[in-house]
Structure formats: C-alpha cells, structure tokens
Sequence to fold (437 residues):
Amino acid sequence: MAKRLAIVSSGVASPLSSALEFAKRAQSLGYEVGVFAPCAARGLILHCDLQHIETPEPRVDAFAPLLTREEMKGLTAKQRKDAAVDALGAEAFADALTRFQPDVLLVDCELHAQILVGLSQGLPMAQFSNMFLSPPGLCAPPLNKHAHPGVGLRGSRIGILLIWNSLLLWKLKKRLRNRLRYGEAEYSAALRELARRLGVPLAQKRRLLCWQMPWTYRIPTALLLPKALDLPTRLYPGFAYLGSMILQDRPEKPHDHGAVARFCSAPDGKKRIFVGFGTMMHPKSGLLSSLWAVARKHPEWQFLFAAGRTWEDDSLTDLPPNVEVVVWVPQQELLYHADLAIMHGGTGGFVEAVEAATPVLLYPHVNDQQGSAARAIFHGIGRAGRQTDTPDQIEADIQALLSDPGYKENCNALQATCVAETDAAILANYLRNLIDK
Fold:
C-alpha cells in the first residue's frame, strides 16, 4: 500500500508553488499525497492533479493579535485565551489530519499551530521552506537585512554579527511589547497555550535564535532550494537542501502573446531585459520612471515589464517605444530568452532566474529579498540597487551586467550545479529516512 504524505501549505503563492512541485515529485515516487491548504489554492492544486484537503485561512502574522479589540471586549482573561487558541484553527486541522491518516507530514515552517498538532500526534514530520533559513552566524546576514558578505562594514564578519544581535533583540522587544498590548490574544502566548493543551514540550522544541518569526522548531527541516545558491554557512542540525522546487506545470493565464513573441525573438544585437516585481508588492514609481529614462537613452535594449492587474500608476504612461507593459507573462519561459532580469528578489523568482542562467539586477524591499541580493552578489550572478537609485546608477548597473561576460559565465556555472541537485533519488531518500526515524 502506498505511503500517505500530507503537505500543509499556507496558500501564499511562492511557497505554495514550491510545495506543489514537491508534492508532484513525491506522487511520482509512489506516495499518495494530500495537500492541506485554504480554498483559494484549490484551483492550482487540482490543476496539478493533486488531492486538496481544504483548511481555514491560517494565521501567519506572528506580530498581529489573534483577536480584534472588539472581539476582546467584555471577555474574561480565560475567555480571551480560549478564543485566541481557537483562532489558530488547530482543532479543525487535527480533525482533517485524522481523516487523512498520513504516514508522514510536511508543514510550511510559518504554520506554527499545524506544526504543534503534528508534534502532538507523534507523526514522522518535517517543516519546509522555500526561503534560505540561515542561522545566526558571521557569514550569512538575516534574510531581511541589507548586508552583502564581504562588501563594506555591514558585510564584514563583525558587521553581520551586530546585525544579527540587533534583529534578535528587536524580536524579543516586539514580543514583549505585544504581550503587554494584546495579553492572551498575542500570537506567541496563544501558541504556548496551545502547546500546553496538546502536551507538546514547546521549550524543548522551539529555537529562538533564528530569523523566522517568532521562532522555529527543532525538527527535521526541508529547504526546497539548491545548496549551491546559499551562502557558506553552517545550518542547524536536521536541515537538508532538496534542490530547486520550481513548479513546472503552471496554468497559463490570458496574456499578450504578441508582446512575448516580440521580446523572445528580438533582433540579434538587441539586448532583452525583463522587468517583473511579482504579485505581492510594487516598486516605487520613482524607480520605474528612472528605468524608463534609461530605456529612452538605449533604444538597443528591449524591455518587457509584467505589471500585474493591480497597477494604476502614472509611471506606466508615456512609455518609451522599446518598453512594453503586459499584465502577465510565462515567466519561466521568458527568463530563458532574457539577457537580464530586473526583479525585487523574492526567492521564487530569483531561483527561476538562476535556473535559466539569467543575470539579475535586484531592488529588494522586504521579507527574503535582501537575502537574495546578498546571494546574487556573493555568487557573482547579479547586482543589487536601491529603489531610490538615480537613472545614472541604474544605467551603470545594467551596462555592467550586459557587457561583463563574467556575470553570464557565473550564471552558467551556477545553473549547472543547481540542476545537478535536482535528483529524484535525493527526495526519495529524504522521505524514506523521515518515515523510518
């Protein structure tokens, strides 16, 4: 009988895509896979021919209260505690898990309540992430901090250490302040109470010295990323790289086929520059205006910008003739044709560019984007700027990335190394060992 694998996702686009690619590969190895995710993820899950088990929208913001002030009004301390624990959705998840009866469980590292439920049931389990979860050290700064190893004071070993200390102190202060502000409705407090009720020894299982908010767990951890792309850092025990997990079978959305064809078949000698900043956030309009100013100076460069449906910005009007703006593109395909990708640096898009051996110019803002910039610079596959950069600085960065053959050579070498890590045997051994422990 096939082993049953439960994969639990938050439904957020990038980690969901990585989780579904993981699920498809596990299914091809003979596992019966169920994907636990919110309703909004159902279409993509079914498109991948996977079983969907619907779960409530998870609460993943570790610094937001689990109850509103209106919900807390008139409740006793015990009632607030009960309501906050209920808001985590652990009971509904436990019921769904019992019905599925998995042999092994993999949970997104941001889904704390679901991890605690898994621990309480004694299942073979691991947490997974499609972000680089480098621990505090001297070589890899926190993912959300501007620091490039080996570059300047912030990138020095002492500089990185100070940044880590500052982040860990900030996390502690934030948790204490929220505890005073929200009481029993504070996220960490509710998790501690849930762990107590489930009989999970949280103090032994959690790890406070980490980038994740508010903590992570001392359990096997699958990084859905290639080791070759990371910085040279010593991981926590139990961490394992499983190679790139880029979803290969995405549903194609309506798009401008002509614009994509014109970009991919640009005349010889015309450099093709893809600009895409993902679906979750937008760059400042000043950055786009500066980019288009550079484009006007260089008609020999062809730009294609995937803007999404939510853009309403003056910077997208009166565009240079060598700039086309579309709602959506088949990004993976397009990156193989691009000479340069300008992105915010979210791990998902960044890894896709690496797999396509496309140099990158990153303008990071929040979350894991600064970590991508640090890795792009360290491996010599790109540059990083700031959203306030002048047109002259942007032009200089683009010129360097297009004219220096070293960037493309580094991209080709890193691509080959990353592709070599995508081996079905690695995943098969990982799951087998996880079940056997």
Remarks:
- The chain is about 45% helix and 15% strand.
- The first strand starts at residue 4 and ends at 8.
- The mean pLDDT is 92.
- The chain has two domains: 4-244+421-436, 257-419.
